[in-house]
Amino acid sequence: MRKLLKKAGADILTVHIEACKHLHRNIQQIKSLGMQAGVAINPHTPVSDLNDILGDIDVVCMMSVNPGFGGQSFIPHTLNKIKLLREMIDERSLKVKIEVDGGVTLENARSIIDAGADVLVAGSTVFKSADPAKTIATLKSF
Question: What is the dihedral sign for C-alpha 75, 76, 79, 84?
């Protein structure tokens, strides 16, 4: 599957920490294909679970809703997790990006970025917008 994704043009592959029995091996496999490797973490999984893998990955996808369907509300305690993760990354001088996925809106985007996020996934906010291009431009302005 990884090879098919690479062949199709993907350059980043993210796996859920909760779904990987051998996370380090999975990250090595992704990297061996010349792809960037990411780890997604569910809202109630502690960021400390990333300690041993953080130096080997390129991105952490911080889920700010429970995975499963779009349109859910942002889980507020995620802001503290983003701040803690940013500290972990900065203390080790790593270049790991923090991506936040779920419940991202025009109202909370600034606080998510201020907490330390690098990338925002704002699916419902964009696709349910009357003017998606304007919404994207506004998100990019933060």
Answer: negative
